[in-house]
Amino acid sequence: MESITFQLNWEPNGFQAPYFLARERGFYDEEGLEVRFVEGHGSPFAAEQAARGAATFALAGASAVLSVRSRGLEPLAVAAVTAKTPAAIYTLRDVFGEPLEQPEDLAGRTVAPSATKTRILAAQLLENAGIRDEVDLRDVDPHTHHRVEHQLLDGDVDAAVGVVTNGLELERDHDRPADELPIGEHLGVYGMTLVTEPSFAADNPETVRAFLRATARGWAVASREPEAAVDALVSRNATLERRREIEREKFEAAAGDLQVTPHVAETGWGNHDGDRWRRLGETLAETDLLEGEIDPDAAWTNEYLDADAPAIRDYAERAGRWR
Q1: Tell me, what's the pLDDT at 21?
Q2: Euclidean distance between CA atoms 271 and 55, whole angstroms
Q3: Residue 210 sits in the same domain as residue 266
Q4: 221: containing domain
């Protein structure tokens, strides 16, 4: 067995359930891999760990991959996990005063972002809708620890920027109707990716292919058996049992709305679409998130995706996510 490390972007949650299921079902073992999962501290940290060789693989947002590359490191995305960003603008109906259904509804409102990257995506969403100058999109407050829910609960802001299911969590926890506006439905940019260090991939191509095959199997089976996926997640972190419903919602959002697109249905699981990377690069280029110039096309490769593996080639059908 070959021992490898997998750096997660955050603590275990529903978005990560397929990886835990893949390990529980022995998919990594069958590929000759002993995978040690490491809890994370955000996508930039995960991408940097992979780029420095401190982790064999990492789960990181595409914007973080480009940000880390702008600092001179070279995380390489070897699979695109979610074709759409999980970022979302959410609100409570009794705060907003009406349903939040489209970007134009945010005109004249105050919006608080939870992190710099989601703020940038929200700004681009508003720009595309032609209302950027009509919205008070606040700067990220470093004292919120990436949590802006209390500002929304207190009515200090009209909406917040986080990820899909944040609104559902508030609705469940406080019994107040919520609405979510998924940014990924309006911006064609990538969300989560699997990354490694380029020289490791070049020297160990079969290890990379094996990891991706097993992971694709995990995603496909999890899509068919979502409760089993959540069970595997809870086995890792028992405290999530009380949040089981929300964790399943997170997984369902990732596996359905965020992951399977016509491109994935045609080319298979994990396959990169260069247009989405270039569009993301253009979105980030005018921000202070990037510390130097980047080439979005150098940040990804399809070289290590085993196009003949059924779980990759026929992913959409096997996952039951395409008609």
Answers
A1: 98
A2: 22
A3: yes
A4: 2-84+189-319
210 shares a domain with 173: no
List C-alpha distances in Å: 111 to 54, 122, 136, 209. Answer: 37, 9, 6, 42
Return the CATH number at 145. Answer: 3.40.190.10
Q: The pTM is what?
A: 0.92
The strand pairing partners of 33, in sequence order, are: 2
Looking at beta carbons, which pairs linking 65-68 to residues 24 or more positions away fall under 8 Å? Answer: 65/193, 65/195, 65/299, 66/280, 66/281, 66/284, 66/290, 66/294, 66/296, 66/299, 67/117, 67/284, 67/289, 67/290, 67/291, 68/44
Which two three-digit tokens encode residue 123?
Answer: 């700004």
8 A C-beta contact, residue 113 and residue 148:
yes
Select the more confidently predicted residue: 257 or 175: 175
Domain identity same for 108 and 55: no
44 and 6 share a domain? yes
**pLDDT tens-digit readout, 125-184:** 999 999 999 999 999 877 655 578 899 999 999 999 999 999 999 999 999 999 999 999
Q: Residues for the chain: how many in total? A: 323
- Burial classification of residue 15, based on how many CB atoms lie within 10 Å of its CB (0-12 exposed, 13-18 middle, 19 or more buried): buried
pLDDT band at 323 (very low <50, low <70, confident <90, very high): very low
Rg over CA atoms, the chain: 19
Q: SS3 of 61, please?
A: strand
Which residues, 6+ apart, have CB-to-CB distance to 15 below 8 Å?
Answer: 86, 192, 250, 251, 254
For the residues of 239-267, what is the DSSP string, one character each? GGGGGHHHHHHHHHHIIIIIT--HHHHHH
Amino acid in position 220: A
Q: Which residues contact 221 (CB under 8 A, 6 or more apart)?
A: 18, 21, 22, 25, 228, 229
What DSSP character marks residue 114?
Answer: S
Q: Residue 321: its pLDDT value, please?
A: 63
